[in-house]
Design a protein that fits this description.
The chain has about 260 residues and is an alpha/beta fold. It has two domains: about 1-30; about 30-255, Alpha/Beta hydrolase fold, catalytic domain (Rossmann fold, 3-Layer(aba) Sandwich), CATH 3.40.50. It is about 40% helix and about 20% strand. The protein has eleven helices and nine strands. The strands form two sheets. The protein has a six-stranded parallel β-sheet, with helices on both faces. Strands 5-6-7 form a three-stranded antiparallel β-sheet. β8, α9 and β9 (about 225-230) form a beta-alpha-beta unit. The protein is globular, with a radius of gyration of 22 Å.
């Protein structure tokens, strides 16, 4: 006769294994709670403040990377350091030239999803400079200096870059802009992470710094979940709620591999 105590122990053990397996499955598909935000050319990370506050209020841990725009290699280094500092899976977000940065940095195994905000989602062999040749931006205010850096003419900064933020904000952005190096703007992407990672895109339909049709094209070929806002190039500043919502959607369990 079988030992009833042994049977009871075995049954309890098997039940525990079954319950443990069931509970482990949702845990493996839990929402990502880490977000890394990457600024683009002519700006710095402070523009992400409103988005970061919303994400933090919603329970996310946020890191704002500060790539210096001195070279593509430098910008990769600073962004990858921000990703690694989070200590786990992240949603990686890029604005403008920051899209070029996250396209390569997104290959980091800790990156679970990519979010492009009016950004360059480049394909293999493309640079920010080369892709704009087919569909040029409306602005003509980008000017080089003798040091190999590019600036936006301050007189046109508000209209061409930040038309829908308060004038005092756009004025200060103009006088505190971070120039982008020629190397950063012309560096060709070699391995686009959007080909293997869930991708999301916000198109800024009134953008004068990247052609909105170019944004739509890049979003479409990346098979990105796409939203569109009537915004200038700094859509993440003028529409922080919509930007945060898209980021949180990218962090949801349904989009995690």
């Amino acid at each position: 006769m079988k030992n009833p105590c042994a049977i009871a122990v075995l049954a309890a053990t098997l039940t525990g294994v079954t319950l443990g397996s069931a509970s482990a499955e949702p845990a493996s598909r839990a929402a990502i709670k880490n977000v890394v935000l990457v600024h683009g050319a002519f700006a710095d990370g402070s523009g992400w403040e409103a988005v970061a506050k919303i994400l933090e209020q919603d329970g996310y841990k946020v890191s704002v990377a500060q790539p210096p725009e001195t070279s593509y290699a430098d910008d990769q280094k600073y962004t990858k350091a921000a990703i690694d500092s989070m200590g786990g899976p992240v949603v990686l977000v890029g604005h403008s030239y920051g899209g070029s940065i996250i396209t390569e940095a997104g290959n980091n195994p800790n990156v679970a999803a990519l979010v492009y905000i009016a950004a360059f989602a480049l394909d293999e062999g493309e640079s920010c400079a080369s892709i704009e040749q087919a569909l040029p931006q409306a602005s003509k205010a980008f000017k080089p200096d003798s040091n190999g850096n590019w600036w936006i003419d301050q007189a046109h900064f508000a209209a061409d870059f930040a038309a829908d933020v308060p004038p005092a904000v756009s004025r200060f952005m103009a006088i505190s802009q971070v120039p982008i190096s020629t190397d950063a703007f012309t560096h060709k992407v070699t391995m686009p992470a959007w080909k293997t990672k869930p991708t999301f895109y916000m198109v800024a339909s009134a953008d004068r710094s990247i052609n909105p049709e170019q944004e739509r094209m890049m979003a479409k070929r990346a098979h990105a979940k796409t939203v569109e806002v009537n915004a200038s190039h700094v859509a993440y500043m003028s529409h922080p709620k919509e930007a945060a919502k898209l980021i949180e959607e990218a962090a949801a369990p349904a989009h995690i591999n």
